[in-house]
Design a protein that fits this description.
This protein has 3 domains: 88 residues, 2-Layer Sandwich (Alpha-Beta Plaits); 113 residues, Rhodanese-like domain (Oxidized Rhodanese, domain 1), CATH 3.40.250; 64 residues, no CATH class. The protein has 8 helices and 15 strands. The chain has a 5-stranded mixed β-sheet. By secondary structure, the chain is an alpha/beta fold. 31% of the residues lie in helices and 22% in strands.
């Protein structure tokens, strides 16, 4: 069983290159796989390993300057959710492209999962899903507005074009683990919106804590690891990824004429050229060859 930790923390970071080396070395020491992003504004990522390994790296990260209050959410998977480790330097730990937005300065009101249902069912509350369109497509909260954005960077433009729809109403926002709402609610505060709220811990915390019989959630929650989607109790959902477009698909979608492993699905078949598909086929061929080599080496080792 693999332990998975989804974590983020906003804090000023200066010596990024040095920190990247230190964090990578510690992750390797604890046999951690997954992705960690470092930026001047903090840390974000999802990682996996043994339970002791995850506890070890989290304890280490909390010792770093400014990270004593690092928070995370734990879940589990019977299969390895990541194949390798990435520790990357970025301009932002979640890209919004709004340099004046400061989650350390002002964010919306945090709402505990136990209080979320009551809030979003209020007549004067508009619920906005801040995630990307492919995430919303497989699950969201009752009555939530879908901005239909392809990336989080598009959210400010969407808000500017639609804000009049929400005049004189309270705004409740949510995302997968909470990080995007730190920025989206901070952005709205900078736009003069004071009555803005967000789900503390995101959808993942809600699905972990709220019984299914009390839910206002419909569908599955997309996650950025090998599980692809999770439901209530953070049970692994039925989805898999199309490696052509990185969107989630269901088992029955594999039977669609447009599906080709590693190349395309019904959602992206018309979005890529024949040259693209040829490249994807070659990539998939190399993946399969690498799998074959690994199986042969394992057999020889036995």
């Amino acid at each position: 069983m693999f332990t998975i930790a989804a974590l983020y923390h906003f804090t000023p970071v200066s010596n990024l290159e040095d920190l990247q080396v230190i964090v990578r070395e510690k992750c390797e020491q604890f046999d951690i796989k997954g992705t960690l992003l470092l930026a001047p504004e903090g840390l974000n990522g999802t990682i996996a390993g043994s339970d002791s390994g995850i506890q070890g790296i989290l304890s280490f990260l909390k010792t770093l300057n400014g990270f004593a209050n690092l928070d995370w959410k734990i879940s589990h998977s019977p299969d390895a959710p990541f194949g390798k480790l990435k520790v990357r330097l970025k301009r932002e730990i979640v890209t919004m492209g709004q340099p004046d937005v400061d989650p350390l300065g002002a964010v919306g009101h945090y709402v505990e999962p136990s209080e979320w249902n009551e809030l979003i069912q209020s007549d004067d509350v508009v619920v906005i899903d801040t995630r990307n369109d492919y995430e919303v497509a497989i699950g969201t909260f009752d009555g939530a507005v879908d901005p239909k954005t392809n990336s989080f960077r598009e959210f400010p433009k969407w808000w500017e074009e639609n804000k009049q729809r929400f005049a004189n109403q309270r705004i409740a926002m949510f995302c997968t683990g909470g990080i995007r709402c730190e920025k989206s609610t901070s952005f709205l505060k900078s736009q003069g919106i004071d009555d803005v709220y967000h789900l503390k811990g995101g959808i993942l915390k809600y699905l972990e804590e709220i019984p299914e019989e009390e839910t206002t959630w419909n569908g599955e929650c997309f996650v950025f690891d090998g599980r692809v989607s999770v439901g209530h109790g953070l049970k692994i959902g039925p989805h898999q990824l199309c490696f052509g477009c990185r969107r989630p698909i269901l088992p029955e979608d594999v039977k669609h004429p447009s599906f080709e492993l590693g190349v395309s699905c019904h959602q992206c078949f018309d979005e890529t050229s024949e040259n693209d598909k040829a490249r994807f086929r070659e990539r998939q061929k190399q993946i399969e060859l690498e799998k074959t080599r690994k199986r042969k080496s394992q057999v020889k080792a036995i």
